[in-house]
Amino acid sequence: MEDIEQIDEEAVTLGDEPVFRWRLERLEQAGYDQCSALELAGRFDIDLHFALDLRKQGCPSDTAARILN
Description:
Blueprint (H helix, E strand, L loop, with lengths): L3 H11 L3 H13 L3 H8 L6 H9 L4 H8 L1
Helix pairs in contact: 2-3, 2-4
C-alpha cells in the first residue's frame, strides 16, 4: 500500500473530480478507513460495486482492501 503522504497528494489532485469524490464518499459510507477509501477512490481499475459488495457481505475493511489491491 502506498504511504499516506502520497495518497494525500493524489487526493488533493483528484479532489475536484466529481467521480472521485462520489467514489470516496461511497467507500467511506461502506466502512473503509480513510486511507483505504482515498486509495481505492482514485483507482478506477477497481470495480466500486465489488468493493461495496465485499463490505456488504461482512468482509472486514482491511481484508477487503487487501483483496482489491
